[in-house]
Design goal:
Length: 578
């Protein structure tokens, strides 16, 4: 086996950079650093006192971006030592660095999209007083920005995971602290004060000409469509805090009094006692990723799965002091009730579908089988064809006399990652995805929900929303960001081939289509009619999926193993084990 850089100019640049980045005092490699300006443009490229002007750095970066010829004899396997030495010159100490060298992706045959994706990620970074604090929602300047120039809590999660996997913890820590600071603000919508624990949906950095300094502006729902507060933001914040702690091994951030208080405020909101007879959270339409009217009011699967995962993460993060122990006791009780409720009443497979089809109504007693008085005639026709012989899923919503049988991708994937789904249920969800690949994945992964609302139902449920027409946006649109959740769920269930197949589909189009927010059509064939280009979480979702497949140990950041003590006696269908 032999390894060469065929182009002499590449050798010259390579050796030039190598020599410049040797620290004479320690004779060790010092990091190559790219400093970004607050607007995301590269200003200088410097290291250990060596600084290049912007024009020189651009030339060097363009040369480094050209593919290097690697000649490999097929008589031998590639030398890991030789390859690692080559990549260490570009990424010191074997660490990947999204800010320092976005191309430092050490897979032997890294896809060309990876480097492009990291460059776009670098441009999306938002700075606040020279510190990175998040990523903008999209970088599409061809249309009015609206709120796509803001840092959204839910949107930043895949970006944060990508940065953590790439060894860039600073931006994630800064984001967690800034959003925590925003939580403490007084939140008023008209004359009504929101709960103290509400986290913002998004924030924006603007320049205050009076003070001549940068300030943060947060949106807690007062500017959102429908004026709905984001229920999922607090849950994502706790989940991300646990991911940061798990990845870095540093618990000092989570143990800060401010972080402990922030968690307790979020938990106070969702663990408070009210009139509910269910352990699930009652929510308004538009309170999560589906942030427009789509009939997800009540007890949406996305919120319940995130709620369950956030509670489990909080158990690991809360300190065992007097206040912490009180919340831990309440969390444990809620988790037991929530897991039983979700696994029994939200789960649907072929046998359970048949049982509902045969339900009697108007039952009155503790022995009622049809506990929610669901009318069998309300079963939609499509669900009978959609349900495979093997497989199942958590349906969209369960409330009195109402079951929403739609498939929602995010809720089901989070159910797997949080172990809300039992191992048998998790496997059944994967079986469903494989069986209904054309419907749920099609030509571009991944359907946010299935099927789409059409005709009269669309008019009633969405209020004739022109953005949520059939097979578009939230109404059956295909969202590339969901790749990372699917990949994580596939790895956890031992089905990486499903994720690999989906990623290959996305790679065929994402770059050519300029990384759209979503795709339209029954199979996801068309770029969304109002989709922003260079959508950051489409980019970061792809990166996280790729890095997780390369190194499955990253799964530990976002996955929780099953708690055997929470496993209830299953009284519902077990046909997924057939």
């Amino acid at each position: 086996m032999f390894f060469t850089l065929n182009d002499p100019s590449h050798w010259a640049v390579f050796c030039f950079i190598f020599i410049l980045h040797i620290d004479p005092n320690s004779l060790t490699m010092s990091p190559l650093r790219i400093n970004g300006s607050p607007n995301g443009n590269v200003k200088t490229l410097g290291s250990a006192g060596t600084i290049f002007e912007a024009e020189d750095s651009d030339v060097l970066l363009r040369i480094m971006e050209r593919p290097r010829a690697i000649n490999v004899s097929f008589e031998e396997k590639p030398s890991n030592e030789l390859l690692s030495n080559h990549f260490e010159c570009l990424s010191p100490h074997g660490r990947r660095s999204g800010f320092n060298s976005p191309r430092s992706y050490t897979s032997f045959e890294a896809h060309a999209l990876v480097g492009e994706a990291w460059e776009n990620m670098k441009r999306s970074i938002v700075y606040y007083r020279r510190q990175p604090v998040g990523t903008v929602a999209a970088m599409d300047h061809s249309v009015e920005e609206l709120n796509y120039d803001q840092v959204f809590v839910r949107d930043f999660v895949p970006s944060a995971l990508a940065f953590l996997m790439n060894g860039e913890e600073e931006v994630v820590k800064n984001f967690l602290l800034k959003t925590l600071h925003l939580q403490s603000w007084e939140k008023m919508i008209d004359q009504f004060k929101l709960g103290e624990g509400v986290m913002p949906a998004s924030f924006k950095v603007i320049h205050n000409p009076v003070r001549n300094r940068e300030i943060l502006i947060a949106d807690f729902g007062e500017s959102a469509i429908g004026r709905v507060a984001p229920v999922d933001s607090g849950f994502w914040w706790i989940i991300l805090l646990r991911a940061y702690t798990r990845h870095t091994g540093d618990s000092s951030l989570a143990e800060m009094p401010e972080c402990q208080r922030g968690m307790r405020l979020i938990l106070t909101l969702c663990l408070s006692e009210a009139f509910d007879t269910f352990p699930t959270l009652l929510c308004a339409d538009g309170c999560c990723m589906i942030d427009r009217r789509m009939g997800v009011y009540g007890y949406p699967i996305e919120i319940q799965a995130l709620f369950f995962m956030a509670l489990r993460c909080a158990l690991l993060l809360l300190k065992q002091d007097q206040e912490g122990k009180e919340f831990i006791e309440r969390i444990v009780k809620r988790l037991h009730a929530l897991s039983f409720h979700m696994r029994n009443y939200f789960w649907l497979d072929l046998k359970q579908l048949n049982d509902i089809y045969r339900y009697k109504t108007e039952e009155y007693s503790h022995t009622a089988v049809n506990k929610f008085n669901v009318m069998p005639d309300s079963l939609p026709d499509w669900v009978f064809d959609f349900m495979p012989t093997r497989g199942g899923y958590f349906i969209g919503n369960v409330s009195p006399a109402r079951m929403d049988f739609r498939w929602f991708c995010l809720g089901n994937c989070v159910a797997i990652l949080s172990s809300l789904a039992t191992p048998e249920q998790a496997s059944a969800i994967m079986d469903l995805i494989e069986s209904r690949w054309d419907e749920l994945v099609g030509e571009m992964p991944l359907k946010i929900c299935y099927p789409a609302l059409e005709s009269h139902e669309w008019r009633i449920v969405t209020g004739c929303d022109p953005k949520n027409t059939r097979w578009s946006y939230h109404n059956g649109g295909s969202w590339p960001v969901l790749l990372w959740l699917l990949t994580a769920a596939c790895i956890k269930t031992g089905r990486p081939q499903i994720a690999r197949r989906a990623i290959e589909l996305a790679e065929n189009r994402l770059s050519k289509d300029h990384w759209p927010e979503y795709y339209d059509g029954k199979t996801g064939r068309y770029i969304g009619k109002q989709a922003r280009k260079f959508q950051t979480w489409s980019i970061s979702g792809y990166l996280v999926a790729k890095m997780m497949l390369e190194d499955p140990s990253h799964l530990g950041m976002i996955s929780l193993e099953e708690d055997k003590q929470m496993k209830p006696l299953m009284k519902r269908s077990t046909s997924w084990t057939c």
